[in-house]
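Sharing a chain and its predicted structure for anyone who wants a worked example. Both blocks are below, sequence first, tokens second.
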Amino acid sequence: MQRYMIERNMPGVGGLGPDELKGAAMTSNEALAKLAPRIKWIESYVTAEKTFCVYEAEDEAVIQEHSKLSGFPANVITPIGGMIDPSTGG
């Protein structure tokens, strides 16, 4: 499966509390269960107005399906070609 970075425009998401974020994760998990094993959520980063989510998926179409089922937008879907971090530099 391919890894993707999904950018979701979600105004005000950074102001959500723990219970609201838990509810959002539960909604996402319910959609993922319907689409398994074609998609897997790895992690998400929350900013003031967006989330950046890392998923493994068989293709972009299943990410769009997840978006429709969950109600969360998938504004930009970018295949991840690799990863670097400080240890890459030695």
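Comments welcome. The first helix runs from residue 18 to 35.
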